Backbone:
């Protein structure tokens, strides 16, 4: 009979894979601290209406990808992203009144009912930041530079930054009109989704992944042509700050982002080693969202890194952090015969109580098999107890790297091992 498998789009993290996750999360934490970001944790699910209102009814995320649970009068949705929950928490805690400018970060699982593929899952981790309470273009540049630094510090290679601007709502209305006028004659050759997007949000037709839809996008008008002078200036200021920070970028007029809350700067960081969906990070400014959620008119900007796509790329690039770590405990305590098994158990416990990492055998294996196991686990010392050692209240200590053996008094074993491990 076939064994049970995890639900589609979910994965187990077996112990060998944990170190690379720790590396990615730990590195980002360090970089965030350097930039003055503090951690926030919000619930894994929120009222469904929060996402409908913030991400937008016409988006794929809200229309097709939400994991929603309806119980009686309530409808909650497992968070498909972190921004809406963070803004909700910020407003609920009145931070807009107490200390409006906040730099926050979060890491944890998100849920989207997507087609599983390389780097795309239905439960996936994001590492994100939200800088709330300021509209300064300096912050747009800083947030982008922060995302780039995180990926560099993680050790990722072959990634590039693409930026665009979506302007203000008025700019977008002009752009939507221009797009509809241009795209109308091509409607018959576009996919079904695009025909729906034409009415709801024609901007999304620009990043349609269907091959047959792409030729008609080639000569489409670009957002830049519809920008008001103030938006144009804002964009060029942001780009100027990026250049000043030494961040290389390309402008990609087709970045429209899959979530409706964006204004002005939007960006994606792509890595060629991920696969068809190459974005390892996406973000931008969302100045209208707080207002939309019944808060004040304050600006905000942020991003989220997708951990799964980053890991796909790190593995492809054979980054050192992806190699399985061989060592788990430092000391392995093994009996020569069955008679010393209980004594080994006790010594192991004492070593642990003394703050050292130690393990013993629970499978009644032979001495030869246990030394093989010690080698495989990469332990530094093997302690052996045989009938002679027990009789003379001693312990045999083997330094596995040096291949040297010595004998120490049983009573001194913990102190001696602690000293040797400290060097
Ligand atoms: P997003 O572009 O939807 O933006 O997601 C950000 C990143 O999360 C993507 O670039 C991708 O790397 C990763 N990601 C998205 N969906 C999946 C999936 N199904 N499996 C694995 N990884 C995935 C947001 O979520 C915004 N909240 C980002 C943001 C924060 N904007 C402003 N502040």
Residues:
């Amino acid at each position: 009979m076939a064994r049970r498998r995890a639900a589609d789009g979910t994965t187990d993290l077996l112990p060998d894979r944990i170190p690379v996750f720790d590396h990615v999360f730990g590195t980002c934490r360090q970089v965030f601290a350097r930039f003055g970001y503090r951690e926030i944790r919000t619930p894994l699910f929120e009222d469904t209406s929060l996402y409908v209102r913030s991400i937008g009814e016409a988006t794929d995320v809200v229309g097709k990808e939400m994991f929603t649970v309806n119980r009686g009068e309530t409808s909650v949705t497992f968070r498909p992203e972190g921004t809406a929950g963070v803004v909700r928490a910020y407003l609920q805690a009145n931070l807009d009144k107490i200390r409006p400018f906040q730099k926050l970060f979060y890491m944890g699982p998100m849920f989207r009912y997507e087609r599983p593929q390389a780097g795309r899952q239905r439960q996936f981790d994001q590492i994100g930041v939200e800088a709330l309470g300021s509209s300064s273009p300096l912050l747009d540049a800083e947030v982008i530079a922060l995302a780039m630094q995180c990926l560099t510090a993680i050790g990722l290679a072959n990634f590039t930054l693409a930026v665009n601007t979506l302007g203000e709502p008025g700019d977008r209305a002009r752009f939507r009109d221009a797009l509809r006028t241009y795209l109308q004659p091509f409607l018959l050759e576009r996919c079904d989704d695009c025909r729906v997007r034409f009415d709801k949000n024609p901007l999304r037709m620009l990043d349609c992944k269907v091959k047959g839809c792409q030729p008609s996008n080639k000569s489409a008008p670009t957002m830049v042509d519809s920008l008001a002078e103030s938006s144009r200036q804002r964009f060029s200021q942001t780009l100027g700050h990026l250049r000043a920070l030494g961040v290389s970028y390309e402008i990609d007029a087709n970045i429209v982002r899959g979530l409706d809350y964006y204004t002005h700067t939007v960006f994606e960081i792509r890595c060629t080693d991920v696969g068809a969906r190459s974005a390892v990070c996406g973000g931008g400014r969302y100045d209208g969202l707080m207002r939309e959620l019944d808060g004040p008119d304050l600006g905000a900007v942020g991003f989220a890194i997708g951990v799964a796509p980053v890991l796909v790329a790190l593995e492809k690039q054979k980054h050192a952090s992806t190699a399985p770590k061989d060592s788990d405990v430092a000391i392995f305590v093994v009996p020569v015969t069955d008679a010393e098994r209980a004594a080994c158990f006790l010594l192991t416990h004492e070593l642990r109580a003394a703050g050292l990492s130690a393990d013993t055998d629970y499978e009644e294996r032979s001495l030869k098999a246990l030394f093989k196991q010690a080698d495989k686990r990469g332990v530094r010392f093997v302690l052996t107890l045989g009938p002679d050692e027990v009789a003379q209240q001693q312990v045999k200590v083997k330094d596995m790297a040096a291949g040297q053996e010595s004998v120490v008094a049983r009573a001194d074993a913990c102190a001696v091992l602690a000293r040797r491990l400290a060097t």
In short: The mean pLDDT is 95. The CA atoms of residues 143 and 302 lie 6 Å apart. Residues 81-83, 112, 114, 119-121, 124, 126, 128, 130, 258-259, 279-284, 286, 302-304, 306, 308-309 surround histidyl-adenosine monophosphate (CB under 6 Å).
